[in-house]
Amino acid sequence: MSGLDADGSGERDGDDSPDAETSDPSGETQMAADVWADQLLEERLTAIEGIGQFASEEREAVVECGDDGAGLSVAIDPLDGSSNLKSNNSMGTILAVYDGDLPASGRDLVAAAYVLYGPITTMVVARDGEVTEYVVEGQDGEFDERRAVREDVTLPDDPVVYGFGGRVPDWTDRFADYASDIEDELKLRYGGAMIGDVNQVMTYGGVFAYPELQSRREGKLRLQFEANPIGYIVESAGGASSNGAESLLDAEAEELHQRTPVYVGNEELIDRLEAGF
After folding, report:
1. In this structure, how many other beta carbons lie within 10 angstroms of the beta carbon of residue 74?
2. What is the dihedral of CA 176, 193, 89, 76, to 10 degrees?
3. What predicted TM-score, i.e. pTM, was given to this entire model?
4. Residues forming beta bridges with residue 55, ordered by sequence position
5. Which residues partner with 75 through β-bridges?
6. Residue 35: which domain range?
7. Is 1 buried (19+), middle (13-18) or exposed (0-12) by CB count in 10 A?
8. Which of 36, 108, 129, 248 is deepest in the core (most CB within 10 A)?
9. pLDDT tens-digit map of 165-205
């Protein structure tokens, strides 16, 4: 991976290590791997016919492409969990396809997907109310083949796992109360990459949350790039999503890098959370 400036135009201070750091538009740590993935996906996705807008968690503004921005809008988190790179743990890519200009409502989504870079590379795609899981395969560095391994994916009825982000001392009292109940019922699975943790919920049932915090009531995750597509996938699989008050897909989109609390999982677990809020 080469070290690139945030605009993809050149070397970053001569440091080409994948864990070299700057800051993204939200003020969070941006690693060279984030920038590399962003540049690669921007190049590939904007070349697709019918894509009118492209936006990334790693970029300040929307990129207009195609015929004067006409067409579908794509928003991505190029490398979710990039801080796991140094410790060789799971990472992923999140993609949202909106039929509307960015920032867009979750109700404008026509498809969403995530790719999990684990022991094998898998891709989960939601479209037209159905969810399919693929194994991504290839050779000679070109992973251009996919094979469906699970179709019509739904969350298991009996939840097993939970994963909650944020520092525990920074949780609000109402979320801490909810977490205390969940901890007595389910098994902890938290790996520091949203995609890895959500995939646990998709596989075993349960709940993932990056909640409101005392220091940041708006939460950490971005509505356009993370919350909306993951909410869309989980809801398409028969689960539920929430920002604490309503479905993530109903949240009003006001800014491109807008943050929101995120709660996704089995419907009964999300209903319990909202009842306590």
Report:
1. 24
2. 180
3. 0.89
4. 75
5. 55, 96
6. 21-150
7. middle
8. 248
9. 999 999 999 999 999 999 999 999 999 899 999 999 999 99
